[in-house]
Design a protein that fits this description.
Shape: globular
Number of strands: 13
Order of helices and strands: EEHEHHHHHEHEEEEEEHHEHEHEHH
Strand content: 5-15%
Number of domains: 2
Number of helices: 13
CATH superfamily of the largest domain: TPP-binding domain
Strand order of the largest sheet: 2-1-13-12-11-3-4-8-5
Radius of gyration: 22 Å
CATH class of the largest domain: Alpha Beta
Helix content: 25-40%
Largest sheet: 9 strands, mixed
């Protein structure tokens, strides 16, 4: 794990000793690690805590017990190629797809396909797009009730249990899967996701303004339940379905309501319910005393990157940690801007070159696990062994 903060100067530094080191070097490494934990603590203690989670938060979920693991962008490309078969090269030529220097990109290919369809419709291209999108949906249904979501559960325990006087944690994710919802169920958290608690579950943005309290005959004032957070799925979900004009939850809809990986994502984000979710994302970043953790997000979606960069520029009360294992590779424009701000002394920001599963263990645990939570964990452990 390497970090770059104003406290580390102008260089990336490691928080883990690389091989045998003398006492002075070991103390320096430990000091850098403590500074990172201090910044993470300040972020977690912010009045408003926001998390943006991307694909990188699920890559640790491997295939087991006959259940497929989380797909990578490379796997989605290879799957699309298999679906096209021998006609794949001809299809790429037809839609004028050129391989970018970073490597093949399923988002770029689907964007070319849809653009080509506007000017010269083709049944072959249309069939390929339908098949590719179907494959994407199938592979994003990898989370099952018994999936091992250890890091998601630990992450929620550390960031979602907050002082009742503070705003609820807001988790925004670009992922289609149900990892956070399932982990919340495992860890006995409540995810407020904008859907009603009646059947069928229907989406209404006003539900984000609701909360959960415990009413007791012994106390006149209700107590807020501790394990509640808000979940916003910016690109939709594999269990969302559009029926008429209403978005509902269905276990496995034939045509899930998601924003597929293509350049029209920006346009789609201005349609309901996505515009509701994006508006709340933008507003959450503008609030004073806001802590932001961006983890596993590649800064490729411009409609999401722009609100982040705008908040960094204008919200002096924002503290942010950007966590991803590829921050030092490729030097994307926005990451380079953040890096430049840090090197010029911006103590609000930190870049952490690490995976989601590297971040979770070092996150400060500000609220101890309750006896009730330990009791439930013991019984869940017994159930898994039987």
């Amino acid at each position: 794990m390497e970090i770059l903060t104003a406290a580390t100067g102008k260089d990336w530094v490691s928080t883990v000793a690389q091989g045998p080191v003398d006492d002075k070097a070991a103390q320096a490494v430990e000091s850098y690690g403590q500074r990172l934990k201090q910044l993470l603590t300040e972020i977690l203690l912010s009045e408003n805590l926001v998390v943006l989670a991307g694909l990188g938060t699920t890559l640790y979920i491997h295939a087991e017990h006959g259940i497929a693991g989380a797909p990578t962008m490379t796997e989605l490309w290879e799957g699309a190629a298999r679906l096209a078969g021998d006609s794949f090269e001809d299809l790429k030529t037809r839609v004028k797809y050129s391989r970018p220097k970073e490597g093949d990109n399923i988002e770029l290919l689907l964007s070319h396909c849809l653009l080509a369809q506007r000017f010269n419709p083709s049944k072959e291209v249309a069939n390929f797009v339908d098949a590719a999108e179907g494959f994407i949906v199938k592979r994003c249904r990898f989370v099952k009730p018994n999936s091992n979501l250890t890091f998601h559960e630990s992450f929620l325990r550390k960031v979602a249990r907050r002082d009742s006087r503070k705003q609820r944690l807001r988790v925004f994710t670009t992922n289609y899967d149900v990892a956070f919802e399932t982990a919340a169920s495992h860890a006995r958290f409540i995810a407020v996701d904008g859907f009603s608690h009646t059947q069928p579950q229907e989406f209404d943005g006003s539900h984000f303004n609701y909360d959960f309290v415990h009413r007791s005959q012994e106390h006149e004032v209700p107590d807020y339940l501790p394990n509640v957070f808000q979940l916003y799925k910016l690109h939709g979900s594999v269990d969302w379905e559009l029926i008429g004009n209403q978005v509902t939850k269905t276990i496995e809809p034939a045509k899930p309501l998601i924003i597929y990986p293509r350049f029209s994502k920006f346009e789609s984000s201005f349609e309901q319910p996505f515009i509701e979710l994006m508006s709340r994302f933008q507003l959450s970043l503008r609030e004073p005393n806001t802590g932001l953790i961006v983890v596993g997000f590649g800064f490729n979606d411009h409609h999401i990157v722009q609100p982040i960069m705008s908040a960094i520029r204008s919200n002096v009360g924002l503290k942010a940690a950007i966590v991803d294992p590829s921050l030092k590779e490729g030097r994307k424009e926005h990451i380079a801007t953040i890096e430049s701000l840090i090197k010029n002394g911006d103590y609000r920001l930190a870049l952490v070159n690490a995976k989601f599963e590297d971040l979770v263990p070092i996150l400060p645990d500000l609220v101890r696990e309750t006896e009730e939570e330990r009791h439930r964990a013991r019984f869940r452990g017994l159930a898994e062994k039987t």
